[in-house]
Amino acid sequence: MAIKELNLSAKTTIDGFMNGINKSTVKGAGLEFSQYRSYQPGDDLRSLDWKMFARSDRYYIRESEVETNISVRFLVDASASMNHSDGDFTKIEYARYLTACLAYLANLQGDAIGLYIFKNAELFSMVAKQDYQHLARLFYQLEQIRPEGTFTKPIHYKEIFAGTQKRELLVFVTDLYQTENEIFNLLDTLNTLRHEIVVFHVVSRNEMELDFKGYTTFEDLETGQTIQIDQAKARSEYKNKLNLYLEETRTKMLDRRIYYRTVSTDEPLDQALRDFLKQRNKLRI
């Protein structure tokens, strides 16, 4: 039942979002002829059609249809910090729903989809394929996620680097909780493969506002360490430091040419889906 609910939720969300938009091709240089258009300064001269020039004495660019089906791999952080909740809603539940919707959208557009789950010194790997049965298996694996432990150590990353030699779109859903820069080290390694990378940084409203009603003792979900906090006194300095951290993170991602966006667990998925489509349609395999 849980699998069917996730499948139905993703389908309902994406069908409503797309609203009739389902482009699987773009104009560009390819094999299937599409149309001519007038030459414009800056166009690739190799695309000029000299036969049309001979007949009309005008310059035309020959445009073609090119398939944009790609391989999209979803990387999901399932370390214990993803159990953080805002009310009855946890980060991992939001990450699960976001990933399911993006996977459904990618599958709808004919892309191969794969899944990697990072948790407690382990890495679950699911190769990228393009068919509905594979999508159903991906939904099943998302439903099985039970966050625990710390982020996966580099010794377990080898399966990530054993994929296709073509450029892929990597979509990383994480809360970016790290102790020794391990997540950025992973991103740096992935960057060497020249893949397109999108990072969705999952946050909750109560951690953004430091608004945990009635609580003074806070526990680190991954280490078990506790700390006493007077929220009212700490809130202003906390928010200043958090904003600085988020800005520094955004700059680090930009320096690495990684698309980065924070998504709050109380935020509708619409903008995240638009961002995904933008990046997916940038990649030409």
TrEMBL record:
Which superkingdom? Bacteria
Domain annotation DUF58: ranges? 35-241
Pfam families named in the record: DUF58
Q: Which Gene3D superfamilies match?
A: von Willebrand factor, type A domain (3.40.50.410)
By its UniProt entry, which PANTHER family does this protein fall under?
Answer: BLL2464 PROTEIN (PTHR33608), DUF58 DOMAIN-CONTAINING PROTEIN (PTHR33608:SF7)
Put simply, this protein is called DUF58 domain-containing protein
Species of provenance? Pedobacter paludis
Tell me the lineage of the source organism: Bacteria, Pseudomonadati, Bacteroidota, Sphingobacteriia, Sphingobacteriales
